[in-house]
Amino acid sequence: MKLDAAVFRFAGTVVLASLALAHWVHPGFLWLTAFAGANMLQASFTGFCPAAMIFKKLGVRPGNAFN
């Protein structure tokens, strides 16, 4: 798996999990969805993604989107 796919899968999992938690546990979990969306938006402008940095340190092969 390449870095791009790992980051997108992680972000998608966070969004879907937070929506499920907001539905079944507490609506406050929607803030996690907002945080994930804001982080994806800023990463698209700056190229800085904390999740990508963590995945790089774990040895995931580089991709095209995150250097």
UniProtKB/TrEMBL annotation:
**Domain Inner membrane protein YgaP-like transmembrane: start-end pairs:** 3-56
Pfam family membership, one: YgaP-like_TM
Report TM segments: 7-25, 31-55
Keyword tRNA processing (UniProt): no
Keywords in UniProt for this one?
Membrane, Transmembrane, Transmembrane helix
Indicate whether Cytoplasm appears among the record's keywords: no
> What InterPro entries does the annotation carry?
YgaP-like_TM (IPR021309)
What protein name applies here? Answer: DUF2892 domain-containing protein
